[in-house]
Design goal:
With 188 residues, this protein is α+β, with helices and mostly antiparallel strands. The protein has two domains: 2-30 and 110-186, Ribosome-recycling factor (Topoisomerase I, Chain A, domain 4), CATH 1.10.132; 38-105, Gyrase A, domain 2 (2-Layer Sandwich), CATH 3.30.1360. It contains four helices and six strands, in the order αββββαββαα. The strands form two sheets. The chain has a four-stranded antiparallel beta sheet with strand order 3-4-6-5, with helices on one face. The chain has a two-stranded antiparallel sheet with strand order 1-2.
């Protein structure tokens, strides 16, 4: 019975750490690396008839080339609202509205801007590592509780060692994601 409880703790640990990695991946997608990507607009809400609506649900977003994104609203009447939402989102790109669609022209990344963006990516990575360490701490506390309830010391030590191995694996994964993002930023 106790080994089932250990398995549950370990499964919860893996699941929670995977969620932290998934969150990191989403955050890294939002940090532009010089290449146009519709995901850069994720999280930007446009006022659509009084309702805050994700921009991709009020317009067709397409990438015209490596440096240009086109936003074609379903209705021309919301062009100004989309333009305003992009300006307020402060993504570092000024929208160009031609009356039919909005185009975003990505400026080339300066060395300084790359460093700034990588610093932001590193900050997200650090937040994820902190989250992973917190998950590890909580999992080890659960194992210690199981030990008080009769789990043998050896089984508790083995479980803690496994949790540490999982933690190391996920922490290394954060590093790999940051490395990939840095390569992407420097290759443009």
């Amino acid at each position: 019975m106790l080994s089932e409880e250990i398995e549950l703790v370990i499964d919860d640990t893996k699941s929670s750490m995977q969620k932290a990695i998934n969150h990191l991946e989403q955050e890294l997608l939002k940090i532009r690396a010089g290449k146009a990507s519709p995901s850069m607009l994720d999280g930007i809400m446009v006022d659509y008839y009084g309702n805050p609506t994700p921009i991709n649900q009020a317009a067709n977003i397409s990438v015209l080339d490596a440096k240009t994104i086109s936003i074609q609203p379903w209705e021309k009447s919301i062009l100004a609202a989309i333009e305003r939402a992009i300006m307020q989102a402060n993504i570092g790109i000024t929208p160009q509205n031609d009356g039919n669609q909005i185009r975003l022209f990505l400026p080339p990344l300066t060395e300084e801007r790359r460093k700034e963006l990588f610093k932001k990516a590193s900050g997200e990575g650090e937040n994820t590592k902190v989250a992973i360490r917190n998950i590890r701490r909580d999992s080890i506390e659960q194992i210690k509780k199981l030990q008080k309830d009769g789990l043998s010391e050896d089984a508790a030590k083995d479980a803690e060692a496994e949790i540490q191995t999982i933690t190391d694996k996920f922490t290394a994964l954060v590093g790999k994601h940051l490395e990939a993002k840095e390569k992407e930023m420097m290759s443009v």
